[in-house]
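EI: anyone free to look at a 249-residue chain?
SC: sure, send it
EI:
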Amino acid sequence: MRFINTPNLPELDVALSAMSGTYPTITDALRARKIEIINVMPCKALSEPVFDHADMLLHHLGENRIIVAKGEEDLKRKLEQLGFQVIYSNICISKLYPQDVKLNCARIGSRQMIGNRKTMDAAIQEFCACNQIEMINVKQGYAKCSTVVVDNNSIITADPSIAEAATNAGIDVLKITPGYVKLEGYKYGFLGGTCGMIAKGKLAFTGSIQSHPNYDEIKKFCDQKNVELVSLVEGPLLDIGGILPLKTV
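SC: here you go
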């Protein structure tokens, strides 16, 4: 297996992903596609609806470099056994916002990062500064949850601050209607938390993407980017903290 150079955007079929460990039907659907899974287990420091969400507990920097929430020793050990160079976040996460979203930032291609500077962990900010990655500052702390990365210059989001900031930064944006994503304990979840790439140009969802009221616009937008939409299972779209691709075949 090879490490993915650009976070979220594999160049080949994905062979290893990280995701919540509490959705066996989705895990089975990915394993049926020969994708190994790093199960992200519940973190007691976070609120129960999101305590096992990958996009809350780790942040892939690219290649074998990855940031893990400080204190998550089991997750750190799993990743190190797979060859990752793991960095702990500077700050311990906790239930209260904004302490819960320290790693929740969205990397777009090799040179841009969407996130809230006020909530983002210093380890991510330092990495961006040292690697000439442009910081696109937004009001939304849950930036990764709120962003579907389609390609290295295209995103889908329901968040107005992300849509505006990304457009101003030259990113192609499809703005969709908020909601229509299930997340227990909340009114609704975010579309970015329902998906992840499983191959180059193949975006997989945790439920039926056809159930979203903006499906036709989403499909047209992704068709223009040569990105295929895949529903891994039937039923409502579930915000599980995303499916984070880490290695390819």
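EI: Residues 4 and 107 are 13 Å apart (CA to CA).
SC: 👍
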